[in-house]
Amino acid sequence: MPDYPKAIAPDDRVEPVPRRIRAYLAGELVLDTRQARYVWEWPLYPHYYIPAADVNRNLLIDEHRTEQVRCGTGQVHGLRSGETIRPSSARWYGDDALPGLADTVRFDWAAMDSWFEEDEEIFVHPRNPYARVDAIRSTRRVRVELDGVVLAESASPVLVFETGLPTRYYLNQTEVNFEHLVPSETTSSCPYKGRTSRYWSVRVAGTVHPDLAWSYTFPTSALLPIAGLIAFYNEKVDLIIDGERMTRPKTHFS
Questions:
Q1: Measuring CA to CA, which residue among 218, 208, 221 is closest to residue 182?
Q2: 20, 42, 64, 106: least surrounded by Cβ within 10 Å?
Q3: CATH architecture of 5-122
Q4: Residue ranges of domains in the chain
């Protein structure tokens, strides 16, 4: 099996971003660039570093202090857009930065109200260009159980294969036993799939197991096959696929 870049990427690897990147705060455009850099500050996904020339400097507040990190010395700035202030949310790197990062600005992701790759909003963090997420229709027979109670059963699931995670099985709502599902106020976001529309907890034998199932009403364009379907955490329920009971995987969701 070949070694993929994601698996061997060293920390602080720098690559050009081929996509236009924009970000907004309180309705104002903070940055707009076609020359961003990916920097792998940790192995699983990169962060954007933005050329200072492509930043709206009128929104930057120099805090007159620096921070030293592996990438170099960053001049710390805050952001202000109207009445909205995000202190210590940007670092402007100088000549001692890693190759390719001099005169770039790193913004804290959560400091912005929204980020866009081209014209599609992205969530949580930049997408890893070496990760894949595919939604594929299937005729595998899938049964979902918890403590012996059948929660769902389908012969027409959509399988989602996402790098680094177990296969997720998305099922038609008509194939889910809503008698055991309890609507939850929880929502979440994914850089590859978008924002969830809802979560459900599961009630079995008087016990409520929180947030075991979820759905995306309006997923990203690449994941449209899962729109309106429901998936369960493999880590927290029992899956029987084509008659074979699967071992619960161990992930950060376990």
A1: 208
A2: 64
A3: Beta Complex (2.170)
A4: 5-122, 133-245
CA distance 175 to 149: 14
Name the nearest CA neighbour of 17 among 57, 42, 47.
47
DSSP per residue, 226-239: GBT-EEE-TTTSEE
pTM for the model stands at 0.84
Protein fold of 133-245: 2.170.150
The full DSSP string for 145-196 is EETTEEEEEESS-EEEEETTSPPEEEE-GGGB-GGGEEEE----EETTTEE-
Give residue-wise pLDDT tens across range 86-127.
Answer: 999 999 999 999 999 999 999 999 999 999 999 999 999 999
Mention every residue, 6+ apart, whose C-beta is less than 8 A from residue 121: 114, 115, 194
Question: Residue 83: is it exposed, middle or buried by C-beta count within 10 angstroms (0-12/13-18/19+)?
Answer: exposed
